[in-house]
Each structure stands twice: as structure tokens, then as C-alpha cells.
Specification:
This protein has one domain. Helices cover 74% and strands 0% of the residues. It starts with a helix and ends with a helix.
Amino acid sequence: MNQIKKLFSVNAAPVSTDVALLLVRVGFGVLMLTHGIPKLGMLFSGEPIQFLPLFGLSTGVSLALATAAEFGGSILLILGLGTRLAAIPMAFTMFIAAFVAHANDPLAVKELALLYLVAFVALLFAGSGRYSLDKLIEAKL
């Protein structure tokens, strides 16, 4: 039970910090949806999947994991539900995008993945802030 409390814990912070966390969560969550929704469509289109197979996984499994992180994680971030937990696969996906999928590309190509990576790592450490479902759950626990 104590571990669950830690997962949904919201640090006491000034209102300005909580507003900033809300903007980062919702802003990056909505923007990441623009990447997750097309992957969701690709996953269920029935057409052959063209995606980078990683770590010995098939293209379908790799696409499903990226879709779960980008689409599912975005929804969780926007709601502020399990923010720290949601940020982990999202950050991992952006790490893979920047340093594996675009390893040989110039910085201009991998810059967007790096920006997302920084935001998701920041949310991993900072949490969701008081304007979130995490805060409501913490109050109930």
C-alpha cells in the first residue's frame, strides 16, 4: 500500500509549479497523441506493418509497444493518472527513437524525440502536480 501511495504522490509545490506541470503534461500529451494515433491506425489497418523491429521483437510487437507508450501514455499524461509510471515507457520510446531509430541521422532529425525525452524524464521526477487525477487518488489513499 505504501508503494502505491508513492506512485501517486504529489509533491507540495507553489501553484505556479503545479500550473507549469499541468501545461507540460497536457501540452506534451496532446502533441504526442499526434504520433500515437497514426501508429494506432497502422497497428489495426490490416496492412503489412513497416516498423523498426527492436531487440529481436517482431515489427508488430515493436509497433504495439510504441503505440501503447505514445497513445496510451499520452492519455494518462493528459489526465494526470499514474503520471510517473506513464512517463517511463514514453521516455524509453523517445530514447529508442533518438538513439536507435535515428542514430545516424543529424541532430535536426532526432531533436523532436530528444525534446519529448527531456519532458518525459522531467515528469518522471516531478510527478503530475495538484491538478491531476493522481492528486485525487493520493487524497483518497
